Amino acid sequence: MITASWQITIDRKSEDVFDFVADLHNEPKFNPDASNIVKSSEGEIGLGTVYTEEFKRIGAYRTTIDVYQPPTALGFDARNPKCDARVRFTFEPHGDSTEVACVVGLTFKGAQRLVGVLMGGMIKKQIERNRGPMLKAALETGS
Q: Which of 24, 54, 69, 130 is close enough to 73 for a disulfide, judged by CB 3.0 to 4.6 Å?
């Protein structure tokens, strides 16, 4: 398993940051590997909401919100025949700012396990270096 983590302060209220991250339609704004996101369950976004999404180099995921505690904790369980991902966010308010922490666990399956072995360090670095600053930019500047 590859485990990557990052932390960043965003100059937005925790409710705004939580809502932005919970709506996976926003994910391509801070994760350039994600695209074609469709909410495939009925109702409002919350515990049990299911999305389908595409990821570069890995294919389609079925992603379920499995932790939903606004505005402090959010989790996603993403399943794919090649790799499963477990993503955990925490949001700690500090006045009008929010400290966001994220832990990503990737479990490669089958022949893809070799990808984890050969490219695990690079994948971990990319997640840790890029995701937080990209989320910050998306929320603070709207880019």
A: 69
Identify the CA nearest to 74 among candidates 34, 136, 15, 2: 15
Q: Is the peptide bond before 32 cis (omega within 30 degrees of 0)?
A: no
CA dist., res. 79 & res. 85, Å (int): 7
Task: Report how far residue 2's alpha carbon sits from residue 121's, in angstroms, rounded to the nearest whole number.
Answer: 8
HSE at residue 53, side-chain half, CA atoms within 13 A, is 25
Contact 61, 53 (CB under 8 A): yes
Q: What is the pTM of this model?
A: 0.91
Q: Which of 125, 122, 124 is nearest to 106 (CA)?
A: 124
What confidence tens digit (pLDDT) does each residue in 22-74 have?
A: 999 999 999 999 999 999 999 999 999 999 999 988 899 999 999 999 999 99
Question: Does 113 have pLDDT greater than 80?
Answer: no
In sequence order, the 6+-apart residues with CB closer than 8 A to the CB of 107 are 1, 83, 84, 85, 86, 116
* Structure tokens given for 59: 């294919």
d(CA 90, CA 136): 15
Decide: 88 and 32 in contact? Cβ < 8 Å. Answer: no
